[in-house]
Amino acid sequence: MKNAINYYYNIVPDVIHQTGKIYRFTTKDASYILTPFNESNEINDIYELSISLLKIGVPCHQIILNTSNQVLTNINEISYVLMRIFIDVNKTITFNDVIDFNYNINNEKSKLIRSDWFNLWTKKIDYFEYQVNQLGKKYPLIRESFSYFIGLAENAISLVKNNSVQTSLVVAHRRIKANDSFYELYNPLNLIIDSKVRNITEYFKSAFLGNNIEDEINHYLYYANLSNSETLLFFARMVFPTFYFDMYEKIINEDTKEEELNLIIEKINDYEILISNLYNYFRSTMMFPDIEWLKKRTS
After folding, report:
1. Residue 194 near residue 107, CB atoms below 8 Å
2. Alpha carbon of 30 to those of 86, 97, 124: distances in Å?
3. Which of 42, 100, 114, 109 is nearest to 72 (CA)?
């Protein structure tokens, strides 16, 4: 790989460290990561977004063009992106880091926009339902738990279906989780454009599996100054069980064992309490849609 990096980028690495298909290396004055990336139809928008962020002082990883002036480089039939690193990629993010990552964006034609949650979620759920029907009895824990989490997802989908009020778009992440490092936070390949509540809700849901997060949620809601529409989006995304579907995909792709689902299944009651408390709070402060199972749970 050292020869390939030299050939395609005119960079001579000192020492290369390989983790799977990811290569980390340094030169005398810089650190780099060479990583696979398959979303070729989005890569130019990602590159432009990263340039815009660097210009305003955001220390996201700098994408390095190859000697052909291209972002993607095919090495051994794998598409790679080379990035220069400016921060300590091993430092763990905090609640405040997620809050502070808040940058407005005005590109309404970007391929990175992910604000149509209704259609995105509907397609995802339809595909998962089809997939589970094809699995037979291979994954008993998925069979046992899937309908419950599909029900939560359908609640979330119904909440965003009629929420037509436009909200401002910001730079967000495909996924950002508690205990992620600064590598994920400032990785341009992880960036998209979406509502400002996306990052924080995904952070909260992942943190919930291991911690009591109600104080952090209360702090966020007190200072975030969300509009009514953003509040509804916040609640809908908290209801949508991303953590379950992410785990589901890892199991189907054989990246983790099915037994890992027990960590989520055991937290169902705690999760319902969290959602119920949010529901009661929002109903006490604004006009909020009726959700029958939550009304019954608190009556």
Report:
1. no
2. 8, 24, 40
3. 42
Sort strands 78-85 and 62-64 into parallel, antiparallel or unpaired.
antiparallel
| 3-state SS, residue 159 | helix
* Rounded Cα distance, 205 and 199, in Å: 10
Contact assessment for residue 49 and residue 112, using Cβ atoms and an 8 Å cutoff? yes
Cβ atoms of 79 and 70 within 8 Å: the answer is no
Are 188 and 46 a contacting pair, CB within 8 Å?
A: yes
Structural contact between residues 203 and 95, judged by C-beta atoms closer than 8 angstroms = yes
What is the spatial distance between Cα 142 and Cα 127, in angstroms, rounded to a whole number? 15
The length of the chain in residues reads 299
The residues pairing with 175 across neighbouring beta strands, listed in sequence order, are none
Whole-number pLDDT of residue 98: 96
Cα dist from 171 to 84, 99, 125, 185, whole Å? 20, 12, 25, 11
pLDDT at 164 over 70: no
pLDDT value at position 137?
A: 82
| Per-residue confidence (pLDDT) for residue 298, from 0 to 100 | 63
Instruction: Report helix, strand or coil for 32.
Output: strand
| Stretch(es) of the chain classified as CATH 3.30.200.20 | 2-85
Place of tokens 């002082």: 57
pTM summary value: 0.92
CATH topology of domain 2-85: Phosphorylase Kinase; domain 1 (3.30.200)
Residues 6+ apart with CB under 8 A from 171: 49, 53, 101, 103, 104, 105, 191, 192, 193
